[in-house]
Amino acid sequence: MQIGYKLFAEGYSPQEMVRQAERAEAAGFDFVEISDHYHPWLKDQGHSGFVWSILGAIAARTRRIGLATGVTCPFIRYHPALIAQAAATTALLSDGRFVLGVGAGEQLNEHVVGKPWPSVTERHEMLRESLEMIRLLWRGGYHSYEGKHLRLVDAQVFDLPETPPLIAVAGGGTSAAKLAAELGDAIFATEPLPELVRTYRQAGGSGPRYAEVPLSWAPDEDTALKSAHRMFRFAATGWKVQAELPNVTNFEAATAHVREEDMASSFGYGPDPERHIAAVQQFTDAGFDRLTLVNAGPDPDGFFDFYAKELSRRLSRIAPAG
Fold it and tell me: In the prediction, which pLDDT does 210 show?
């Protein structure tokens, strides 16, 4: 079991992300994970720095803690060749501490380059081609690739680590879980769904199983729920909605009727460590073993102290019930 901390890049500045990564290392977290977005989800969040610059700064300012994207869409806004290069460079700068998390993207971030937003089937095809291309480039030498959607022409990544980064593939359904087993080294999820882990394993996947655990620490429950509602109510829409809406205004409208009390059903919240442990236990029971704690509370430093004092020792020993 490894426990990570989510660097919420939509809610804080790039400088603050680097500072929080240093605090996470000092607090005993095994890794930090950061999203790769162009826009925030909501107006109240107000940030969205360039992830690859932030990762480079974190690599230089930390020594032990692992780094991961959670997750990068390697097509449309980017080309897979650029992600192959960026991930290889980050792995070198971090001395092999980097994991490349990839997924099929959201229109919120990818539409900015002016290309049409593909159907989910087409996006999964593009993700497959992207992974094949990245793997090809990480073998070294010049390569070309001709896919149904994507092309690579006479390209080489010159600076490669001795061991390529692990690739964790985001999976919200069975097809993505099978893709994670076939072309990834790990699976990545945001819900405690045992069927995802089961499908991944049945398809031959034997690597780590990453998941994000929604928490909101504050000295009292009301403050914790208010903060979760203000910063994370977008998550109540579900991935089928989150992938399709094109801008912040749409997410504001889509979440207008989400109430503070609605957040209580999906978050571990407040000052009681038992409530947080129970939220983590759901993901452990579902078969995940790389758990990223996502703090929606208003005080990151308070959460780090809470983790070090109340959660770290217990979570290091957590196991599936029974």
Answer: 98
pLDDT tens-place string over residues 50-86: 999 999 999 999 999 999 999 999 999 999 999 999 9
What integer pLDDT is reported at residue 66 of this predicted model? Answer: 98
Half-sphere exposure of 105 (CA within 13 A, CB side): 29
Q: Which of 33, 106, 125, 129 is catalytic?
A: 106
Q: Is 143 a catalytic residue?
A: no
In the numeric block, which tokens belong to residue 176? 């993505």
* Domains of the chain listed by start with CATH number: 2-316 (3.20.20.30)
**pLDDT at residue 240, rounded to an integer:** 85
The confidence score (pLDDT) of residue 171 equals: 87
Query: For position 282, what pLDDT does the model report?
Result: 97
Tell me, yes or no, if 37 is annotated catalytic. yes
Catalytic residue among 10, 33, 37, 39: 37
Low-confidence residues of the chain, pLDDT below 70? Answer: none
